[in-house]
Amino acid sequence: MHDKPRKNNARRKPIDAIVMFKMLVLQQLYNISDEELEYQVNDRLSFMRFLGLGLAEPVPDATTVWLFRQQLKQQGLIEELFEQLI
Length: 86
Known about the structure:
The chain is an all-alpha fold. Helix content is 60%, strand content 0%.
């Protein structure tokens, strides 16, 4: 999904799919919007620790979270992935 080669180095490097999925898990657990998720990950050390992010690492923004979720939905994977957690 995110294994496309980069055409140049001007863009940010792709965010790890595991980190993105963990963000969706946090979002489901706390029933928060994409924007609130972005804020809470930036605000809470516990969220950053769960995601494996350091203080200096960039946090995916709300649009990135939305796009990732849309990709999973288009591929029919989101329900299957969440079922694996149960």
